[in-house]
Amino acid sequence: MRTVEEHQRVVAALITRRAPVSVPIADALGMVLADDVIAPSSLPGFDNSAMDGYAVLADDVAAATPEHPVRLPVAEDIPAGRTDVLTLKPGTAHRIMTGAMLPAGATAVVPVEATNAATDTVEICASAKDGQHIRCAGEDVTAGTPVLRAGQVVTPAALGLVAALGLVELSVIPRQRVLVMSTGTELIAPGTPLAPGQIYESNAVMLAAALRDAGADVVAATMSGDDVDSFRDALARHTADTDLIITTGGVSAGAYEVVKDALGGTVDFVKVAMQPGMPQGSGTVDDIPIITLPGNPVSALVSFEVFIRSPLRTAMGLPTPDRPRHTAVLTEDLTSPRGKRQFRRGVLDADAGTVTSYGPPASHHLRWLASANCLLEIAEDVDALSAGAQVQVWDLT
Ligand code: AMP
Ligand code: MG
Q1: pLDDT for 98-148, tens place per residue?
Q2: What totals of helices (H) and strands (E) does the chain contain, helices first?
Q3: CA 75 to CA 88: how far, in whole Å?
Q4: Which residue puts its alpha carbon closest to atom 17 of ligand 1?
């Protein structure tokens, strides 16, 4: 049997980074920058007012007080967005709004609250320091400087910055495009009545969600019955523009193991010393990497967590590929099969630093997985743990 680490290495070697692409900025959210972003222009692009008020020469209002206001004729009205370039003559004021371009010659803005707000002749009731309430060109960003670095994840704020700089595209490491194909003649889509012996398909929707949550694109999440021809046809229909295929089911020791039967030539089917998730496979189909997961829903999702999520995020350049791992104190006695790495579903109380297993170890108990917040990892050489033991958990939140 392969160890967990051996199979992790095999899977990681299959998943490779795509070449950088340019995408419209709005599509880049959550992706990783392939290049530094150099500011093509400065921010602010021009000196502008930080307040609604009056642009003045500070010297003209040096003597202004509430008792003895300085009266200045209002020569211009400058709303934000006015595009003609104005000059302030000494002895006058321009009414100006926040974000509007400062007239040449003005050295300060007096907030409207320190005036009588008039539009013909304004009474200014306070003096102003030179530069007061003026946002200077380039004080945020100087043209030509790097504002974002290669390797940074594009966040909403990063998008705001690049939009403010007038960029329309960003060079990013593209998402991995993944096809999810579950197998099983017993599976039908939710929304259709079940015949006896049928079950609703759940792996494809679950893994597609896990993939998107990990930052990947899902090419299709679909299913095939357990006959080799229809499985091959279903794969062929969906593999255009696919970087990775994930299948579930059809890899264990029974008859009708469709994935094994169809892909025996190019996929290596192995047993990994873990529970759940022992039957695994990896290889290629038409040069596309494929990872074949077991069909039990808990096995499928735990296998995704253990083998796929981290290398997939690494291939997308994401800075935190791994789930956070913590050590927590076990609240109960547990047993585990010797010789296998066990991943139990657990509830981690981060404040108390404790963890409690959640639900039975068997691999079809989806209900418990759905409300667990961690995986509890028990080493191969451990077959019993007592309450109070320190255990390793993978934080799934
Ligand atoms: P298999 O690995 O194909 O032998 O499937 C193991 C178990 O998981 C069986 O009980 C299947 O019915 C169940 N199973 C397989 N695939 C799915 C799926 N996509 N959704 C829900 N259950 C599944
Ligand atoms: Mg099956």
Answers
A1: 999 999 999 999 999 999 999 999 999 999 999 999 999 999 999 999 999
A2: 8, 28
A3: 8
A4: 295
